[in-house]
Amino acid sequence: MSPATKPTPAAKTRPTTQRATKAAKPKKRKRARPDPVVAWSRRMARYRPGLVDFTLDELAERYGRPVWERRLDPTSELILTILTQNTADTNAEVAFERLRAAYPSGLPVEVHRPGEGWGGRGLADGAPPDWVRVEMAPIEELMDVIRPAGIATQKAPRIQASLRKIREERGDHSLEFLGEMTAREARDWLTGINGVAKKTASVVLLFCFGLPLVPIDRHVERVLKRVGLLPAKAIDDLSHEIALALIEPDRSYEAHVNLIRHGRLVCHARNPAHELCPLRDRCRFVNPKAP
Questions:
Q1: Which of 31, 206, 235, 285 has its CB surrounded by the most CB atoms within 10 Å?
Q2: For residue 112, what are the contacts with CB-CB under 8 A and spacing of at least 6?
Q3: How far apart, in whole angstroms, are the C-alpha atoms of residue 191 and residue 165?
Q4: Do 162 and 193 form a contact (C-beta atoms < 8 A)?
Q5: Are residues 195 and 158 in contact, defined by beta-carbon separation less than 8 angstroms?
């Protein structure tokens, strides 16, 4: 028998049955991470029942139950909200009125009803700016117009990019169509604009259409975290989702406005006035073991 036809010794043959068995063994599936919003909501219901209603009812007893009323058209609200970022509301108002003066539109006059959740003096009655002219303005010129709002080098390009996105998607600068959407659909559409986060989108939709969203600004966040309704280390997006899960839709506007008022008047960032706080009996900032 030639070497080419010499059979392989039996001792050198490798059994395949064991390898096949190992290959067929199913892999262990990783356990899916729990939804943090659902997990937190269950924790609140189990360990701190009734805390949401207690918080909102006590604030309503102190500040009343504000009734929603439209402030501005949604495009004006969006641009005004962008102007308020990292500055006082009064500075944003000055910048917005300068937009009106620099780029007049001739449209009907609007009445700004700032309400209790607004920190400025309120806008003078006036027509919205001509958004086409604002979008097309030389960037240096627009920066100079809105300079009172601060960081104009960032806000001017952001305003023009937002207006351009709306026009390219819709054919004009109107955002009135958002009122026909659900709250989450409308928020998702707005946050599709670069630089528009959930807080800005929620402000526009809550104040223009009364959609059930709770914008989490610094005052709202501070009060909710101190009481213990938000996790201490929750980031912006998670905070918005938890607030939506915990607060009944028909109390969204009331909650936002009263939480802001409480943060400004009592629950200050420094030296909060605990003796004046109607929430102190259940506030984890006052008592880490509060019920």
A1: 206
A2: 71, 72, 122, 123, 124, 125
A3: 11
A4: yes
A5: yes
Residues 6+ apart with CB under 8 A from 225: 231, 232, 234
Q: Residue 118 CA to chain centroid, in angstroms?
A: 16
Which CATH architecture fits 47-66+214-282?
Orthogonal Bundle (1.10)
Record the pTM: 0.86
How would DSSP label each residue in 143-198?
A: HHHTGGGS-HHHHHHHHHHHHHHHHHHHSSS--GGGGGS-HHHHHHHHHTSTT--H
The answer, yes or no, to whether residue 17 has pLDDT greater than 70, is: no
Report whether 107 contacts 177 (CB < 8 A): no
Number of neighbours of residue 290 by Cβ within 10 angstroms: 16
Question: How many whole angstroms separate alpha carbon 67 and alpha carbon 69?
Answer: 6
> From CA 175, how far away is CA 186, in angstroms rounded?
10
User: In angstroms, rounded to a whole number, what is the distance separating the alpha carbons of residues 110 and 126?
Assistant: 5
Q: Which CATH class is domain 74-209?
A: mainly alpha
Distance (Å, rounded) from C-alpha 175 to C-alpha 187?
Answer: 12
H/E run at residue 101: helix 89-102
pLDDT, one tens digit per residue, over 115-147 is 666 777 888 899 999 999 999 999 999 999 999
Strand partners, 104: 129
Q: Return all residues near 28 (Cβ < 8 A) that are at least 6 apart.
A: none
CA 170 to chain centre: 23
In which residue ranges of the chain is CATH 1.10.340.30 found?
Answer: 74-209
